[in-house]
Amino acid sequence: CTALFLVQNWWFLGAAIAVVLASYLLAKLPLMLAWQAVRPALWVLVLIFLVQLWLNDWQFGLYVVLRFAIMIVAATLLTLTSKTSEMIEGIERSVGKLFGADVAEKVGLAFSLSLRFIPMVRETYQEVREAQKARGLGRNWRALITPTMIRTLKSADDIAQAIDARSAGAPLGEKEPRHD
Which of 63, 113, 174, 178 is the most buried (most CB within 10 A)? Predict the structure, then answer.
């Protein structure tokens, strides 16, 4: 995915598309999963295309949209073929080599919390959506987004307080003083 930003030409983009789709087949996953990964982001990709069309031209807009779509499909492939624990361990090892074990542990915690928040936000969104439909506010996006954001931020704050209470923010090897 990083290479897609570093090497900006159509040949490389085409090769990336071929490699990612071939990887799906190699993993014995149906290509329909690639489409299902991109489909929820279509409205964002269309918006990005329109902005690029306005700022640049249609070719650059298409290039940018395809690049993001490839990254979404590649990330989906990674999550479908790897255990979450293996991904977190890999991230921690890589970060640990560059920045040390204490930073690696914090980055690993941040990634695992981020991965935990994705289904939680989706579940919150669905609950709020159903409640708003029942109230006749099905098409009012503010009535949907505002409570979803508030509930998500509240959950994030609760988790942050729990981590704080367990002294996860203290440097490794140091413990918070006990107040008996």
Answer: 63
